[in-house]
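Retro notes, item 3 of 5
We never archived the inputs for the BES complex last cycle. Fixing that now. Sequence and ligand:
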Amino acid sequence: MNLFHLKQFSLFLACIILSVSCFAQTSTSDPHSYAQPDRAVVTHLALNLTVNFQKKVLTGKASWNIKVNQDAGEIVFDTRDLEIRKVTLGDPEKLTTFTLGKNDDFLGKPLTVKLSPGTTVVNIYYTTSPGAAALQWLTPQQTGGKMLPFLFTQSQAILARTWIPCQDGPGIRFTYEADVKVPPALLPLMSASNPQEKNKSGKYHFNMAQPIPSYLLALAVGDIAFRKLSEHTGVYAEPAMLEKVAWEFADIPAMVAAAERLYGPYRWDRYDVIVLPPSFPFGGMENPRLTFATPTVIAGDRSLVSLVSHELAHSWSGNLVTNATWDDFWLNEGFTVYFERRIDEQLYGKEFADMEWVLGRQSLADELNSFGEDDRDTWLKLDLSGRDPDDGMTGIAYEKGALLLHCIEERVGREKLDSFLREYFSVNAFQSMTTASFVTYLENELVATNQAAFQDFDYKQWIYGAGIPESCPPIISSRFLLVDLQIAAYNEGKPCSELQTKYWVAQEWIHFLSGIQQNLSSTRMKELDDTFGFTNSGNSEIAVLWFLMAINNQYTAAYPQMESFLNSVGRRKFIMPLYQALMQTETGKQMAMAIYKKSRQNYHPVATGSVDELLQWKEHDKNSPY
Ligand code: BES
Ligand code: ZN
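Structure as it came back at the time:
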């Protein structure tokens, strides 16, 4: 073979490899999207939206740039509860035909649009429904300022389709720009380049130059103000909270620096955080450039800022390298929890990070316990087909996933794992990753060169098997060993005032509360409360643990605080266990129903979906006037 042929041959080989890898990218079938990206796929979105607070709807036009395979005569989008008014092709626009398929409760309806040869743009004119599951429309009364309404979205996992017709799978990426019109007293923000102050017109333009999957589309609209933390970071919140938020999150610039030192450059330009009203159903959401956060982390003592480390870490694990389907969720969350604790270790020291590891290990044990030994949902690689992905995305992905990386670190050493991860984020940036392709990558880049370290370590069993294989040394926190002594003393009857709790931080209190005997007399509950003030704790994690103990021991003195917490806070991780605990007794059940009847209107659809099911809330209850 002469040089020319060799060149041609290698070109030919490269083409095959390229097309095989492209095929592998787009043909990963996603059980939660109707889209058929191997036939026609989106590449860019130009969104034009008007926010109507009176009608609680978004109205507008989504113009999609698309890439079409030769003979695909149509393109399929995901929609749910959207009214599609008209679809046109190209610019200038030409009307085309479309069909909406059969509705599925959580997948919604496929929108199939007829294409003409050479179509590159599809324009969809649509309106959302007031009940759209991604959207929460807050009345002025439900905000901190009480004067103006508020709107925010939550797109993960498959709710983007309830506010934008899109190809709603995490394996498909696109850039976007948006023109959004809001009432002039309000400021809109997106997961994109953002304004820092209001203008008189109420019209704003947004741009996201890096390709993202649909679950990272986000919008918040309200009486929102900005405070700079550094040249490239800042915080947004309602004006009354802004000072507190800026103080609580003062470490953000240092967190970004630590994250970059660990795993490479931050690829999203700015990093800002918005603290939303208390009904936000999650702790945080990693919307690119603009993390959405619950106000329940504003504890007043910076004790819960690791939530920001977590959401920031997603800028690499999740937003840069993205789980290809929700079955691969652990690649997002497990990696992020590991990364989060590495950031925390850099900022707050090893003792602090070790406490987080032990708390995580404990919550994993509890969760595995409640699942049972062989439960399929305790694999890292999930199988969520035919189910609402929300049901299967549990804490397992977080803590078992993080623990797997921790165990690998134990075996190959920190230096090697870190350079492996740095490379992983850089090589796979702006792409999606299946569990199988991660395993291959791991085998090629780490296992092959460190065979001895992996010899008796069955990582596949971790990923494709239930529970925790017994191949990982326990994590020990030296500070918790001291807390354990106080737990033992308390359980033996030592009065609270004699316990050594000076200098304890939130994590130590959490360990203490989960470690002490859980069945307590009202005298002992009162003694704890009088000495340590748990009922009025400003730390939401501590308060919720305490409310759970209050329910289990019928310590009624804490009930008024618990009720007012449940009435305003809509964070699912907190409210679900509280309602669950109440449901254990007949009187508790009645209390749960009464509280929910008042509070339901304050929760996001993501939260009401879960609580409705738990309380078996019925249609007629839903419609009853509050
Ligand atoms: N991406 C998740 C939130 C999420 C997960 C939304 C699944 C919808 C479906 C976010 O990064 C997260 O994990 N939030 C945690 C906080 C974190 C500190 C563990 C939460 O909200 O509790
Ligand atoms: Zn996360």
